[in-house]
Specification:
alpha+beta
Amino acid sequence: MSNNYFEIIRPGINTTFQDKGRDHLYHIGIPFSGAMDNRNYLIANKLVNNKLDSAVIEFAYQGPHLKYSGERINFAVTGDVIFLIKKKDTEIEGNCYQSYQIENGDEINIVSTNKSVYGYLSLGGELDLKFQWNSCSINTKANIGSNDGKKLDVGQRINLKKINLNKDIKKTNYINTKIENIRVIKGTNFDYFSEEGKKIFYEKEFIVSKLSDRMGMRLEGPKIENIVNTNIKSEGLIKGVIQVPADGNPIIMLSDHGTVGGYPKIGVVASADYDRLVQMAPGSKIKFKEINLSDAETLFKLYEMETQNFLSQI
């Protein structure tokens, strides 16, 4: 049994272990999963000197309250998050994008995200987790991944196999930017929708529904009219695809999405905009902007370059 571990005093909301996700399993119905906000995931690991593909703790809205037992360790929190560090009788408010050191008996209390959805807690070492298909990422819909595919729960222990020797304190000034329009390319069933429906999709605002999770984001707003068929033969889905069911309200497929579906697809979110899309909390307004495939590829290359630039500065 590990001598270095965290005890979960409060698990928070939808708190799971996530890493880079699973490749090449769509053909057997297993989605990619992995951290929802990839850039915040990578920065979290870099701040504590972990390998970039290491497991982190992802939480939504409210994070976990943890008590630590063991030798000194670094941790960091990324996202737009309010959290506290308790050391003996002293409690301080932590700053995101900065690593901290904690010791035996100290506590981390991740109070909430701030006008966003997902945050990340990275621990400076290797977590003792079960891997499935080369990933520890938890998909609670399918009970896949570490922790028997379930959310973290009160009283559980998070054990560490080892702690990083490099405990240097690191900091970066990364800012979570908002985006005015979510850029999309046309979906494979774009012509199923009326001209008025297409115009509504690109020109009107939609509201993020409370019925959103790691599997999908439901939107509410003006109805998008289908003039061909509101159902199609089930076919493959990818992360970011936008389906429109019979009620005319779009659904964006997210990281734990089903791999096949029978609703017509009006568009696909550009990969470069995905991190900021998933951070849009219920009640947020979304507008879509059409781009072509070449533009989407260019935007993704720029996103990758920017991400590497942020990491190189830590």
